[in-house]
Write a structure and sequence with these properties.
The protein has helices at 6-19, 62-74, 95-100, and strands spanning 2-3, 25-32, 38-46, 78-84. It is of the alpha+beta class. The protein has a four-stranded mixed β-sheet. The two termini are 17 Å apart.
Length: 103
Amino acid sequence: MLKVPQSAYASLRRHGEETYPHECCGVLLGQIDEDGVRRVTSVARAGNTRTDSAHNRYNIDPKELIRIQGEGRERAEDIIGFYHSHPDHPAQWSQTDLAEAHW
């Protein structure tokens, strides 16, 4: 289970609105409880480095990801997930998501 506070949800929504019609992407930071619940405590926006099809694909630069991870660790947060938008498409896993989603 993933628990996202309203403030983080609002931030994610704003990010998607600001980057439309391109996909936005970013990192969910927080903790994983003993019972396996992932609790988001902050959200880090990332730049979408895809230039060939930014309207339906995304990529986070590994250097940016390392920076975000380091900043999270300073606040005792771990990377607990990622997010990206699906402009003009259903909010469900795409075939690309299923093939490329890993950490």
